[in-house]
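pasting for ref
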Amino acid sequence: MIDRSGSSSVDRVLGVDPGLAKAGWGVVVRTGRDLTHEGYGVIRTSTDQSHADRLLTVYRGLQAVIEEYRPTILAVEEVFQGKSPRSALLAGEGRAACILSGAIAGLPVVEYAATSIKQAVTGSGRASKIQVQSMVALLLSLAAPPQPHDAADALAVALTHLQRGRGAIDVRPG
């Protein structure tokens, strides 16, 4: 059973893989040594929307996740330099909407580099998306790797925070 009373023995982390087209999110809870996920998904925007509406969609989507799951902290992946300066800028703007969501909700916001996340979850800073998905499934005792990869990446961000903030994750199943 998950304690939603705000007890200090329970860590509820909202991990975010930010973006403007897709922002992955995942909530991971640690109670003692037990890790469980409460939910995960993706907030999608459309190029048919205005730029402002896309940012608002990401912001409001994360606000809804925060209201539903009541995390105690928001952990977000740092921006990765994309293939072009424009794509990096758009990703950064989506990331800003995510950070703003957490800050306005009063959550502490922490940031992790992509290589740190891969290292924490898989043991290799150069792990593939498939390796990250597989390890997230193993660590959270999921029947299958979370889809899409944006949601798996968000769960990996949350797991990274739990590892870095509270000691090593026990990778022994069940």
